[in-house]
Amino acid sequence: MRVGIGFDAHRFARGRRLVLGGVEIPHPVGLAGHSDADVLLHAICDAILGALALGDIGAHFPDRDPALRGISSAELLRRTARLARDRGWRVANVDATVILEEPKIGPHVPAMRAAIARALGCGEEAVGVKATTTEGMGFCGRGEGIAAAAVAALAEAPSADSPGPERRGA
């Protein structure tokens, strides 16, 4: 097993749609970013990359790459999961917390879990998503943006063609 943690934060921006967990959420403002700025999926990408000891999302999908402008973060998550599979690992479990005052995401959590599971190629039972507030404290509490934290557990991916994950440091 390998475990990684991820964190991301984005400020609100007018004229953008709000995408969280691969789901568009009705809200008057979205999040600023080079991609669709899905802070939840970015945190999950970082957690997986951390478990693989491969750096962070910016190293793999730099915001200076014009080909990535406006890209769906679900596509970034699919590519990140592929990096894990290519190295002999599979995502066993992801748990994430979205930190925000508004909007309330409870009604959207089932769709988020389904979208995340599709991108990762795992079952929905392996994906946890929840939310919390900061009770008015900090940038999230002042309604300036949204943050997310995630943990990913990777397990060896059984394969008849592969000898398994690299053993260096595993």
Q: What is the topology?
A:
Layout: E1 2-13, E2 18-20, E3 23-25, E4 30-31, H1 39-51, H2 57-60, H3 73-86, E5 89-99, H4 109-120, E6 127-132, H5 138-141, E7 145-156
Task: Supply the key terms.
five-stranded mixed beta sheet, alpha+beta, two-stranded antiparallel sheet, 170 residues, 28% helix, 60s Ribosomal Protein L30, Chain: A
Structure description:
It is built from five helices and seven strands. It is α+β, with helices and mostly antiparallel strands. The strands form two sheets. The chain has a five-stranded mixed sheet. α1 runs parallel beside α3 (73-86) and α3 packs across α4. The radius of gyration is 16 Å and the shape is globular. The protein starts with a strand and ends in a 14-residue tail after the last strand.
Overall average residue pLDDT: 92
Rounded to the nearest angstrom, the distance between the terminal CA atoms is 8 Å
Query: Beta fraction of the residues?
Result: 25-35%
Q: What's the number of helices?
A: 5
TL;DR of this structure?
The chain is α+β, with helices and mostly antiparallel strands. Helices cover 28% and strands 29% of the residues. The chain contains five helices and seven strands.
